[in-house]
UniProtKB/TrEMBL annotation:
One of its GO terms (molecular function) is phosphorelay sensor kinase activity. It catalyses: ATP + protein L-histidine = ADP + protein N-phospho-L-histidine. It holds the Pfam family Response_reg. Coiled coil: none annotated. Residues 9-126, 411-527 form the Response regulatory domain. The modification 4-aspartylphosphate is found at D59, D461. Its EC number is 2.7.13.3. The keyword Nucleotide-binding applies. Keywords: ATP-binding, Kinase, Nucleotide-binding, Phosphoprotein, Transferase, Two-component regulatory system. The lineage of its organism: Bacteria, Pseudomonadati, Pseudomonadota, Betaproteobacteria, Burkholderiales. The keyword Kinase applies. This is histidine kinase.
């Protein structure tokens, strides 16, 4: 805002109206000033604030309130305590002057001063007042800048801390998944071919349930670290929320009330629907715990941006906003600042892993969106997820016909550098009837391919040592084995198969640790797909081979 007031704003308080004429005449030589006259001394503070006076001229002898009292009142108010005050008096008495200075006057002029002296003194005191206000404004601006800098430094420190934790958790989860695959693969193989009695099978199943829990833990860590390959498709969030309604009600129980608000015309977004489902489910579980099983959970979905105001954490753009809000106990500020950190939880030991919000944070960031957390003690918590809107129409996922532990007679090349993982996987596939070929790395796999062996499917790890990468192996498979299918597996596929954390729709990935049911189902699905393509090619139709 531009302040167009003159530099010098003078307020004259005098019960004699002719004083205005005298002062006006005396200030003719004062360029760029305004003079406001007031006969009522009781209004001195009010007018000085309203006019932002830079100098107040006060007559000493007035009825009701004299100049001493007016000066004291101006000094007592925080908005006028620093305004320069010049006392005007017909008395040239040292005692009176001393008393005026004692109550706060800055200057004392005997009526009526020479115009040159009046202008000089008014200009001097007004200039000092303006300089002081400019200095105070500069200091206030500096304080704001320092506060903003401190907030930015805190945010940067938090981001660096989260990134460091993410790098650590991503590496740990990758190795952890390989260990789980070794344990789970061998347990499943033992269950398949070990001729176990019922008691032994129970023990194996118990151990496998532990592997499954570990796999979920690793998946949450990878999601937080933004190293979880996302199989993103364009989805209709409204359809997803409606499909989740029954599940949400089962999670919250009969004592809780669920309110779902979906804006008509809700946009689509490019996201991994399974991961988004997991995130919303985890947020609902957190809300249930915060409300102790009762209260109201509000699930809201609307279009955001489009010219409307967004939270400061969210960059400008068009979004689909999904909100999960509860009426629970809320979080104090210190808890709120750490809420997204993995393993941070306020729940008792054994009642939570502290990974729900961290998983949501990593998933939303990896999906190109933003997550905003608001909470107040006694008023509940709101988690808002902003996902970029997509103009594309929602896609329908191709159904995968699962046939648990369905085998075949085809030939499969298993490429895996972890010897124990490779051994257990080959054992499972052999038990299912497949002819299995092995390779310890991509270079060895290329040698097998160039030997001329017939191969129907290549099952390859993503992260492997050696001069040939998994991507290069894929190119060779596409070129040398045009009818063969390619299925990747990995503890995580950071920067190899994923572009900005998202898998291309043409890439097929089975994440470790994988269950034999999932492995057999994916293999049968791809092999059937390959057969359809061969039949289409034989009938003269165009087919898409290789990484499809």
């Amino acid at each position: 805002m531009i302040d167009d007031r003159p530099d010098c704003s003078i307020l004259l308080i005098d019960d004699e109206p002719f004083a205005q004429d005298i002062i006006t005449h005396g200030l003719k030589g004062c360029v760029g000033h305004t003079l406001c006259y007031e006969s009522s001394p009781a209004r001195a503070v009010e007018l000085a604030r309203e006019l932002r006076a830079t100098v107040v001229l006060v007559d000493l002898r007035m009825p009701d309130l004299d100049g001493f009292e007016v000066t004291a009142r101006l000094r007592a108010h925080p908005d006028t305590e620093d305004v320069p005050i010049i006392v005007l008096s017909s008395e040239d008495d040292p005692e009176v002057k001393a008393r005026a200075f004692a109550v706060g006057a800055n200057d004392y002029l005997v009526k009526w001063p020479d115009p040159r002296e009046l202008v000089a003194r008014v200009r001097y005191h007004s200039g000092a007042c303006i300089a002081r206000r400019q200095r105070d404004a500069a200091f206030a601006s500096l304080r704001v800048s320092q506060e903003q800098l401190a907030a930015s430094q805190l945010a940067l420190h938090q981001a660096q801390k989260m990134e460091a934790i993410g790098q650590l958790t991503g590496g740990v989860a990758h190795d952890f998944n390989n260990v789980l695959q070794i344990i789970g693969g061998n347990l499943q193989l033992l269950k398949l071919v070990g001729n176990l009695n019922d008691s032994a099978k129970g023990r194996v199943d118990m151990a496998l349930s532990g592997v499954e829990r570990g796999a979920k833990l690793a998946a949450h860590l990878l999601a937080f670290a933004r190293r979880q390959p996302l199989q993103s498709v364009v989805v209709d969030p409204a359809h997803l929320l409606r499909d989740m309604d029954d599940m949400m009600r089962r999670v919250l129980g009969p004592s809780a009330r669920i309110v779902t608000e979906i804006e008509p015309g809700l946009g689509s977004t490019l996201v991994d629907p399974n991961q988004l489902n997991n995130v919303l489910l985890n947020l609902a579980i957190n809300a249930r715990d915060a409300m102790a099983g009762s209260g109201t959970l509000t699930i809201r979905a609307c279009n955001a941006g489009l010219g409307a105001a967004l939270p400061p954490e969210v960059a400008p753009g068009d979004y689909v906003m999904l909100e999960v809000a509860d009426t629970g106990k809320g979080m104090p500020q210190d808890v709120l600042q750490r809420a997204f950190e993995p393993f941070f939880t306020t729940k008792s030991t054994g009642q939570g892993t502290g990974l729900g919000l961290s998983m949501a944070y990593g998933f939303v960031k990896q999906s190109g969106g933003e997550i905003v957390l608001r909470s107040e003690i006694g008023r509940g918590t709101s988690v808002r997820i902003y996902l970029p809107r997509s103009d594309a129409a929602p896609s329908e996922a191709e159904p995968v016909h699962s046939a648990p532990l369905a085998g075949g007679l085809e030939t499969i090349l298993v490429v895996e550098d972890e010897a124990h993982v490779r051994d257990s996987t080959c054992g499972i596939l052999s038990a299912l009837g497949y002819e299995v070929l092995e390779a310890a790395d991509a270079l060895e796999a290329v040698e097998v391919i160039e030997s001329g062996r017939h191969i129907d499917l290549v099952f390859s790890d993503v992260i492997m040592p050696g001069p040939v990468s998994s991507l290069q192996l894929g190119e060779i498979v596409r070129e040398r084995l045009p009818h063969a299918q390619l299925l990747y597996t990995s503890g995580y596929a950071e920067g190899v198969l994923a572009h900005e954390g998202k898998l291309d729709a043409s890439v097929h990935l089975l994440q470790k640790p994988y269950h034999p049911d999932a492995l057999s189902a994916r293999i049968r699905h791809l092999l059937r797909r390959g057969q359809r393509h061969r039949h289409a090619a034989g009938s003269g139709q165009q087919s898409h081979l290789g990484l499809t």
